[in-house]
Design brief:
Aminopeptidase, 124 residues
C-alpha cells in the first residue's frame, strides 16, 4: 500500500506553491494547489489520481508542480488537484473507499471527492 501523506501531501508542501485542502476524504485532505504569478492570466485545471491504481498520473502532476510548471507561469494560472482519489491511491484500487469509480461519477455529489470538486468548480 502507498502512503498518501508522505507520497503526495509532503511533496505538495515542498513544491512551495499555495495549497489548501478542498475537503476531507476518509481522513485524508483532498489538496488543491494554485500556481499563480500574477492575476488575470487564463486558468488551466490539472487533475491527477482519479484512479488509485494508476499512480503515474499523480506522479506526473507532482513532477509538473516540482519544476516543470515554472516555464508556463508567465502565460497561465494553474489550479491543480494532484490526487482526486486519496483512498484509492493508498489502497492501490481504481475505486474510492466506497467502491465507486470516480471517473463515472462526476454528477454524484454524494461522494466527498466529487462534492469537493463541484464546490471548487462552481463559477468557473
Amino acid at each position: 500500500m502507498r502512503n498518501y501523506e508522505s507520497d503526495i501531501v509532503e511533496r505538495v508542501k515542498k513544491c512551495g506553491w499555495e495549497n489548501e485542502p478542498l475537503g476531507d476524504v476518509g481522513g485524508l485532505p483532498l489538496l488543491r494547489v494554485t500556481v499563480e504569478t500574477w492575476r488575470g492570466l487564463p486558468t488551466v485545471y490539472v487533475n491527477g489520481g482519479t484512479h488509485g491504481d494508476e499512480p503515474s498520473g499523480t506522479e506526473a502532476v507532482l513532477r509538473f508542480l516540482e519544476g516543470r510548471v515554472e516555464r508556463w507561469t508567465d502565460r497561465f494560472r494553474f489550479d491543480v488537484i494532484p490526487c482526486l482519489n486519496p483512498s484509492g491511491y493508498e489502497a492501490g484500487t481504481r475505486e474510492n473507499s466506497g467502491g465507486v469509480d470516480l471517473n463515472w461519477a462526476y454528477s454524484r455529489t454524494d461522494l466527498p471527492e466529487i462534492a469537493a470538486l463541484h464546490r471548487f468548480l462552481v463559477g468557473r
